[in-house]
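chain below, 137 aa
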Amino acid sequence: NFNGADIVRKTIEAGGEYLVMWASDNECAFYNTKLMPKPLGIGERDPFRETVDEAAKHGLPVIAYVTMQYNGHMWRNHPEFRMKDQDGKELQNRLCFNSPYRATVRQIISELAAYPIQGFHLDMNDMGLADPMGCFC
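prediction:
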């Protein structure tokens, strides 16, 4: 039931100087893309666009938040993106930036750069938060 106007209004009411808006999390996208599904119930809506458009009316900068490393949707649907340990075993929900996933990351950034945003928060750009650190692909 959320919408961009409410998100912007609440940010302004809280005294926010900018807004970091989810563009995608580890399962869904909140903007129009063919790379990931949207949450059930959103349908054809583009909540990211709603937010960016409303924020522009108030001069409120918007930063696109994107979860990069731990993307369950991509992990399940693209085995070629999976990080490997030193024995070649796939690491659960960890994606390798040295795999073809790198081209998908560029596509995500390109799609979001088409929106009038002021920047990105590309979260989880690591090679793992637990052993083994790094990919051995």
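The helical segments are 4-13, 47-57, 72-77, 101-113. The mean pLDDT is 91.
thats it, cya
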